[in-house]
Amino acid sequence: MANVHVIGTGGYQPGEPISTATIERLVGPLPPEVQEGLSIETRYWMVDPETGEHRENNSDMALKAALRALDAAGLDAAEVDLMVLATGTPDYPLPQVVNMVQERLGLVRCATLEIRSGGAGVVQALEIARRFLSDGTYRTALVIGSEAISPVLVPIYLDRDPQKIRMRERMPVYMFGDGAGAMVLRASDAAGGLMPGAMACIGGDRKPGIHSVGGGTHAPIAAQLKAKRLVDLRVDVVGAADFTPRMVIEAISETIAASGVDVETVDLCLVPEGNVGWMLDSLTDQGLDQGTWKALTGKIIDSLSVMGAVGCAAVPLFLDAAWRGGRIRQGDRVMLVGVESTKWIYAGTLVDWTLPAVDR
Amino acid sequence: MQRIDITAAVSQAVADALGAELDEVTPDATLLDDLGAESIDLLDILFRLERSLKVKIQAAQLAAYVQGGIADDEFGDADEIITEKGLAQLARVMPQIDVADLRGELRARKVMSLFTVDNLVDLVVHRISVDADADAATADALAA
Q1: pTM of this prediction?
Q2: A–B: how many Cβ contacts below 8 A?
Q3: Which of A168, A278, A285 best probes binding to B when mutated, by most B CB atoms within 10 angstroms?
Q4: CB of A34 within 8 A of CB of A168?
């Protein structure tokens, strides 16, 4: 069985950073302590926040991230024989975003998969790709996470008096953003690379923490068209703050168990939301800030505060920023954890990082 | 500020925070059961009141006001049933409740479901008066 290495990463976020002051003007204020808990200072949207006009699409962002990852790997797209893309906000229900990116990369034939597991998706994609590459089925994989949430945020405030917008509606507008990240994986005999990962959905008896309602097949189209908004993003912020930390802790423990290494050997741990105020408060309140979490003190990578909550894109995008910024170095043991609050899904994996520092 | 003005501001805050019509927000409507408020909406209501009336009430103060400073183990028994002492306190802040009906039945976690729009007006009136007393005391201290 071959080892599977990360040989390039790429990230892309659209437009200019949108400040919290701009969001406040559009949608109304939040109490300072709530804003502090969300810990998000800037986010990026592919739509114009003032008009809601699309400036690009999910597949455009995914393509840009993919090209940057291929460039970092020094590979031509033609060498990719497996593509796995994770998104919860595709351009269309069908065809898949992965095939639209495939087409634009000029790949007439390629094995492709698309995963819809939110923030856990890319880490699941890494495990799938690792297996296909390590057993020799494919040689080079392109794993992409992309998310386009802004189109469902705009109708919350466009042509409405901000005063009339409820706090529960305002909060997602402050939190979410768009972007894409990509990783190129390749099988080789060299030591290091990806280790076996862990994944589970632990919300089989729990109501969704996030429910994106509309545009599906759950109800007659005629009935859906009568709704106030075609797509309604319902976020149970209280439920998420309560259960997400427990999910993160289980993800870390199970990932350590799956890889068979000691948590003390982990140099860095990428967990989107791992450094935000509400998460840290909740970990402390629930007594979860011990054991494995304590062992990772000072090792958490999280770019949420400047990149926003970007669902499927978070893990590869934050990873790319950490590698390009010099935080992740060749020889580091890096844990990647993705969690998803819709139905409480986690996935984790470890990488012995073999990719040299980016050429500057 | 007159009670009628405070009532109008509270009704508006509740309606906006819950996406409800003003005429649904009657004085005797309970925030949780009748109007469907959840904890995030209570936070929203209090934040709106802070901005419109300049009165700051924290979510924890809302519960403390209802419990009236009675210790948890005196407010409810081992099974979380509200004690006689607790019921007497609840009747002070929620005069509409029927203590006889609730005796031996009411659990601590259900207390807030009895809290009405009018009870919230009372709380705001109380808070404004406490703040005014504190301001007066500060002014006296500075003058002395």
Answers
A1: 0.94
A2: 31
A3: A168
A4: no
